[in-house]
Design goal:
Layout: E1 7-16, E2 20-28, E3 34-42, E4 44-51, E5 57-65, E6 70-74, E7 77-81, H1 86-98, E8 100-112, E9 121-132, E10 144-149, H2 150-158, H3 165-179
Parallel strand pairs: 4-9
Antiparallel strand pairs: 1-2, 2-3, 4-7, 5-6, 5-10, 8-9
C-alpha cells in the first residue's frame, strides 16, 4: 500500500446532516501545490441484494431518484448505519422493499461508488431460497417491484436502462460469474 502523497493542512465542515457530511480540506497536493479538496462522508454503508429464485429470476425496485431527477431501476438497496451488521441491513432492506425473506445469504461484492469525491462504500449480497412476505416501504419510498429473469436484468444494464452503479457492478459481476 502506497503512502499518502497529500498533506492535510486543515478541514472545515461545510454541511452536516444525519446521512452525509461535506468537508473542505486545505491541502498540499502531491506536486507541492496548495489547494482544496471537497469530500462527502457517508454515514451509512450502502447495501444491496440480488435475490435469485430457483427458476433464475430476480427482483428489481423502481423509484424516482430526487438528486438525479430521474426514475431508476435498481437491485433492492438501502443504508446500513455504522455499527449495524451489513448482512442484517441487507435482510431488512430486502424484506422492506420486496417482501422477500431468504434462507441463504452470500456476500458477493464490495464497491466504492464515487471514490474521487466520497468515501461511500457498498456491499452486495446474493439471497437465495426465497419466501414471499409483505413489503414494508419507508415513508420516503414510492416503489415499483419487478420480478424478471436474470438475463433480462443483465440486458437492462447493457441497454442503459439500469444506471445505478451498485446495481450495474453487481449484475455484471453475476453475469460473468455465471458464464465461467
Amino acid at each position: 500500500m502506497a503512502n499518502n502523497p497529500w498533506k492535510l493542512l486543515n478541514t472545515k465542515i461545510q454541511y452536516d446532516n444525519p446521512w452525509i457530511k461535506v468537508e473542505e480540506d486545505n491541502v498540499i497536493n502531491p506536486n507541492g501545490g496548495k489547494g482544496i479538496y471537497g469530500r462527502v462522508h457517508f454515514k451509512n454503508v450502502a447495501v444491496g441484494v440480488i435475490p435469485i429464485d430457483e427458476e433464475g429470476n430476480t427482483w428489481l425496485v423502481g423509484q424516482y431518484r430526487y438528486p438525479l431527477d430521474e426514475y431508476s431501476w435498481e437491485i433492492p438497496e438501502g443504508g446500513c448505519p455504522i455499527g449495524e451488521k451489513e448482512l442484517d441491513a441487507a435482510k431488512r432492506e430486502l424484506k422492506e422493499e420486496t417482501g422477500l425473506i431468504a434462507e441463504h445469504w452470500e456476500e458477493f461484492l464490495r464497491i466504492h461508488t464515487s471514490n474521487s469525491v466520497s468515501d461511500e462504500r457498498g456491499v452486495v449480497f446474493l439471497a437465495k431460497n426465497l419466501k414471499q412476505g409483505e413489503t414494508q416501504f419507508e415513508e420516503t419510498e414510492d416503489l415499483k417491484i419487478k420480478k424478471l429473469p436474470l438475463e433480462e436484468a443483465f440486458q437492462m444494464v447493457m441497454k442503459g436502462e439500469i444506471t445505478d452503479s451498485i446495481s450495474m457492478a453487481a449484475l455484471l459481476k453475476l453475469k460473468v460469474s455465471l458464464t465461467q
